[in-house]
Design brief:
Oligomer: heterotrimer
Distance between the termini of chain B: 59 Å
Strand order of the largest sheet of chain B: 1-2
Strand content of chain C: 25-35%
Mean pLDDT of chain C: 90
Helix content of chain B: over 70%
Structural class of chain C: alpha/beta
Low-confidence stretches of chain C: none
Largest interface: A-B, 89 and 83 residues
Radius of gyration of chain B: 25 Å
CATH architecture of the largest domain in chain B: Orthogonal Bundle
Low-confidence stretches of chain B: none
Helix content of chain C: 25-40%
Distance between the termini of chain C: 33 Å
Shape of chain B: flat
Chain lengths: 494, 299, 256
């Protein structure tokens, strides 16, 4: 029967679309958790991924610096003093401090092709690899120096520091390979393409968007220069030396996958630096909590009092209709308009400036309807018999309200407050023009301060690292989920 | 005796003054609405002495910072706002309505509990997080599927459609649930299938509530700022297709607010005035619909 | 009277763990009016709903026994939608759809196939005429059915049921929400349409049962709160000369 099939199809569709909502939420949450905990980036590097394990030196870094691997060229610039801050290496806002065992200077100057005098610079601390493990003062110095990079002789074991892996092999090719061909030029290779290339699985560079030249694996830099389409893996020092002597060769850049922990304990507990670009978010979390607390402290008494008036005093009629319309409209006002209002009234008219108090007052107005409506419902459901009993004992109306009604409605009122906290936590648009953006902990009501949701907004719009945005977002969503489950628990106890 | 009397007098005074205080608190909401309206109008109105209403609403040319002949047309933003929210409703309605039907007509047990929790959580996710999610997932998806750079009105619509799902589902569900069971039984007893009953009896009977849910969702969507700002592209040029970058009313306010001054600034408040007007209008429609359906029930 | 339409054998029905009907056996003849009487909660409405499988809407209901409709087992051998088309139902409270009068009656036919406008109009007209409502509503077919009086609404529901050409009309206390005049009209109607339909009516009203029905079945609850059939027979016999003492007590008690 035709309509039976229609029925079956329609009902399946309905069920499918309902389950889709679950999938959407699952996708959002799991993606947030994933990106919050791990950052996966493709970095362009001049070296291939292979780590050199045969170097006669070991490299260590301070754990805070997050330096776990270095490529030859970055390392060379660090040693030369051309990169002096870790900002460009791992986005950590620390100046680099080098520690070098002088017995390695001869080797290092040849390895990096730098003057020995550069390695003897007064900014570089010298030490003896054989005794460093027992040198408490030096070790403490390294552990306190968060930008420390330590170069020891091979097989020196240092505890409590990151062992840094060094990659120094490069893909050198004949200059024909990197020429513009048509409107195409060979791009960066990924790990898999490098492997296949060195395995001889590509016959022509055309397969990699390069020119239609055959791939030739060769074994000397001379051949790389002379044979069209030649390629060779060579150590970076030799490449650098050849380039320095004007050899006509090129280097293929490689995408390097970096998968790291994103949200760390350090990020949660350390102070924000340089207006939120580096460092952690502890001050921002504290500001968020202060903001939410103050907002609730201001909004709750007003909303609960309003709810009491509506239920216990207002007669059905014009006043109660006006109040209810006011609440409905206030609930419908978009947050950006609250933001503008806050800017005009609290920031400019009352001259509070971009400050904690301007933000808090704006948000208080915004969450007022949430608390008021939930409280109203709770107060309405307090049994009239209880109220009458209290009045019968001679209590005045307000005494009855304070002693009977509010305690009786406390659970509902709490639910309203927590719902409002959830809303305040995630608000951005109303705060951008009111609360300011300073990343330090608000010391008084008039200090400019930044909260979590707004921090995420500022990271994105000011071009900060998206990984950091996700780390902060994970913190925010966890706070929201906690609030959500508290609401659930309170409501279930009914 | 006198102490008791004094005490009672004191209680009476407290009683009277507390009543006044409570009333004052109850009036905060309406006072805030009036203050917001007045302030926005006060800042927006002077704008129209410099620029005509016609140019403001219908010109597609927004060059407020031009040294000579700055122009203040927000026609493109009005259109973009409507395009975005209508598209969002088109995407969200089938999913939202299906879920509401499923919750009210079928779901018993675990699945419905899971769906209800899902809706609560979706409603609780801050808009900034939706925006971030949009940048990371929706924008690349739109770029890969439809071309362009992905930052587009369509991306904004998709994000908005997820954000308004809870509104559509919750309000539709309530109105579908309030359709009397006797109507469903009458239909089933005549040999109608479940789907025929839903499609021909239940949905038409709940149509007021469903329309109200759509309008409330429209209101929420048109006022949403952060999430659409992050994925919409924010280009002041008119978006010819949904996969072009575009700018909505809210985006216009938030983008220029930080540096605008003079006429430019009051143009932004005029934009906010218009937005506020839309929201008020939508709310009055909802009030009208719900009062109409209340009358219908008492008939 | 050997033209048996329904034949029910050893029917048991449970709501979850609670047995609500116990070993019901009954035959229902074509073109008769059958009344089910008995005290509240005795399962007569539940039993009525067995006949067009409306109990299927309740998840916890389980049924044992055999219900034959024209010799076919309605739980195994018949399509449920076809059964419900052929066995219509009028409910206790008038439940017109919130649509126009015309659309209410046209609802049923349109479920099954697409009609030309004129054909549909004919169907609606004849159904409304059968329900004796045509003259009252023919000028306002497009106005809302909710504007009709209670009695008119119930006749509209009857017309709606008749519009799909059923064989049987089940009526679950169809007049309990109506005034006496509307009730009388419905009763007249029942007698009038008897020649075309088989009618089964559940009623609390003894007089109604004695006035309109040909056959009366009396239900009671046993001490485990299970409903069962006490006796079934020609209405005259049951009311004037009941075989069972319990029937006599109930009827005389009710009549005072």
């Amino acid at each position: 029967m035709n309509r039976k099939n229609t029925n079956k199809i329609a009902l399946t569709l309905i069920q499918g679309l309902s389950i889709l909502t679950i999938l959407i939420l699952a996708l959002i949450l799991s993606y947030l958790v994933y990106r919050g905990l791990r950052s996966n980036n493709l970095n362009e590097r001049q070296v291939i991924d292979e780590v050199n394990l045969t170097l006669p030196f070991d490299v260590y870094s301070n754990k805070y610096s997050k330096v776990e691997e270095l490529d030859y060229f970055t390392f060379k610039k660090i040693v030369e003093g051309k990169i002096y801050s870790l900002r460009r290496v791992t986005s950590v806002n620390r100046d680099i401090k080098l520690y070098i065992d002088p017995s390695l200077i001869d080797y290092l100057s040849n390895y990096f092709l730098v003057d020995e005098s550069d390695l003897l610079d007064s900014s570089i601390t010298q030490f003896d690899s054989t005794t460093i493990a027992d040198d408490k003062t030096l070790l403490n110095d390294i552990k306190e120096n968060e930008g420390a990079i330590v170069i020891t002789t091979a097989n020196t074991k240092l505890k409590g520091l990151n062992k840094v892996e060094v990659s120094d092999n490069v893909l050198v090719v004949n200059s024909k390979v990197t020429e513009l061909y048509g409107n195409k030029r060979i791009g960066n290779l990924d790990e898999e393409e490098v492997e296949k290339l060195l395995d001889g699985q590509y016959k022509s560079w055309g397969e990699l968007d390069g020119p239609p030249v055959d791939v030739h694996l060769v074994d000397s830099l001379d051949k790389v220069e002379s044979v069209d389409g030649a390629i060779m893996v060579v150590d970076a020092t030799s490449y650098q030396r050849a380039v320095d002597s004007q050899a006509n060769i090129d280097l293929l850049k490689v995408f390097h996958k970096v998968s790291k922990r994103n949200l760390t304990w350090d990020y949660l507990v350390s102070q924000s630096e340089d207006e939120g670009k580096y460092g952690g978010i502890s001050s921002i979390i504290i500001n968020t909590l202060i903001m939410v607390l103050l907002t609730v402290l201001i909004a709750t008494p007003v909303s609960v009092a309003g709810a009491i008036y509506l239920v216990e005093y207002a007669k059905k009629g014009r006043v109660s209709t006006i109040i209810k319309t006011g609440i409905d409209l206030l609930a419908a006002v978009p947050s950006i308009i609250f933001g503008l209002f806050g800017l005009l009234v609290f920031v400019q008219f009352f001259n509070f400036g971009f400050s904690m108090i301007s933000g808090v007052l704006t948000l208080s107005l915004m969450i007022l309807p949430t608390i008021l409506r939930t409280s109203e419902e709770a107060i309405r459901s307090v049994s009239p018999a209880l109220k009458e009993a209290s009045r019968g004992l001679g209590a005045t109306k307000i005494e009855t309200i304070i002693k009977i009604v509010i305690p009786g409605a406390s659970r509902g009122i709490t639910t309203g407050i927590i719902l409002a906290i959830g809303r305040a936590l995630g608000e951005t648009a109303a705060l951008i023009f009111t609360i300011g953006s300073s990343t330090s902990i608000a010391s008084n009501l008039k200090s400019s301060s930044r909260v979590l949701a707004q921090h995420i907004y500022l990271i994105i719009t000011e071009g900060g690292s998206i990984d950091e945005a996700f780390a902060s977002a994970l913190v925010l969503i966890v706070l929201v989920l906690i609030i959500n489950s508290i609401t659930k628990i309170i409501m279930r106890r009914k | 005796m006198t102490t008791i009397k004094n005490n009672n007098n004191k209680r009476r005074v407290i009683e009277q003054s507390s009543r006044a205080i409570l009333l004052l608190c109850a009036l905060v909401s309406i006072a805030a609405v009036i203050a917001i309206t007045l302030y926005i109008i006060n800042q927006g109105i002077p704008f129209f002495s410099k620029v005509s209403l016609k140019e403001f609403l219908f010109s597609f040319n927004w060059e407020p910072s031009a040294k000579e002949n700055p122009s203040y047309g927000i026609g493109a933003f009005i259109l973009a706002s409507f395009e975005v929210v209508i598209l969002a409703i088109v995407i969200a309605l089938p999913i939202g309505l299906s879920t509401a039907i499923f919750l009210s007509e079928f779901a018993k047990g675990k699945l419905s509990v899971v769906i209800k929790n899902t809706i609560e959580l979706l409603a609780g996710i801050p808009s900034i997080i939706y925006g971030l999610f949009g940048i990371a997932i929706i924008v690349p998806a739109v770029r890969n599927t439809f071309g362009g750079n992905g930052y587009s009105l369509l991306s904004a619509s998709i994000i908005l459609s997820i954000m308004i799902l809870p509104t559509i589902i919750n309000i539709s569900e309530v109105s579908i649930k309030s359709v009397p069971d006797s109507l469903r039984q009458a239909s089933i007893a005549m040999g109608a299938t479940k789907w025929q009953t839903i499609y021909k009896v239940v949905i038409p009977s709940a149509v007021n509530g469903i329309v109200a849910s759509i309008i409330l969702a429209l209101g929420r969507a048109i006022g949403e700022t952060t999430a659409v700002l992050l994925v919409g592209g924010n280009s002041a040029v008119f978006a010819k297709t949904p996969i072009d970058m575009g700018r909505t009313l809210t985006m216009n306010i938030i983008t220029d607010m930080s540096y605008a001054e003079g006429t430019h600034l009051s143009a932004l408040f005029a934009t906010a005035m218009l937005l506020f007007l839309f929201i008020l209008f939508l709310n009055f429609i909802v009030v009208y619909i719900s009062s109409k359906s209340r009358l219908g029930q008492s008939e | 009277m050997n033209d048996s339409l329904f034949k029910v054998t050893d029917l048991d029905l449970w709501y979850g763990d609670h047995q609500a009907l116990n070993k019901i056996n009954m035959e229902i003849q074509k073109n008769t009016i059958n009344a089910f009487i008995g005290p509240s909660g005795c399962g007569k409405s539940t039993f009525l709903r067995v006949l067009d499988r409306m109990n299927d809407l309740i998840d916890s209901v389980t049924i044992e026994g055999e219900v034959l409709f024209e010799g076919k087992n309605i739980y195994n051998d018949m399509d449920i939608l076809e059964l419900r088309r052929r066995v219509g139902m009028v409910f206790q409270k008038p439940n017109p759809f919130p649509m126009s009068i015309f659309d209410n009656v046209a609802y049923g036919p349109k479920l099954y196939k697409k009609y030309k406008k004129s054909d549909l109009y004919d169907k609606v007209e004849s159904a409304l005429k059968q329900a004796a409502l045509w003259d009252e509503v023919k000028d306002r077919l497009n106005s809302s059915a909710l504007g009709l009086s209670g009695g008119q609404q119930q006749r509209l529901c009857l017309a709606r049921t008749l519009a799909v050409n059923p064989d049987v009309v089940l009526m679950d206390e169809p007049t309990s929400a109506l005034d006496p005049i509307s009730t009388a009209k419905i009763e007249e109607l029942m007698i009038e349409i008897k020649k075309d339909y088989t009618i089964i009516i559940v009623t609390h009203n003894m007089q109604q049962a004695s006035r309109v029905s040909d056959v009366t079945s009396f239900f009671l609850i046993d001490d485990q709160r299970r409903g069962y059939l006490v006796e079934s027979g020609e209405t005259g016999e049951i009311f004037l000369n009941p075989k069972d003492k319990r029937t006599e007590d109930y009827i005389s008690g009710k009549f005072g």
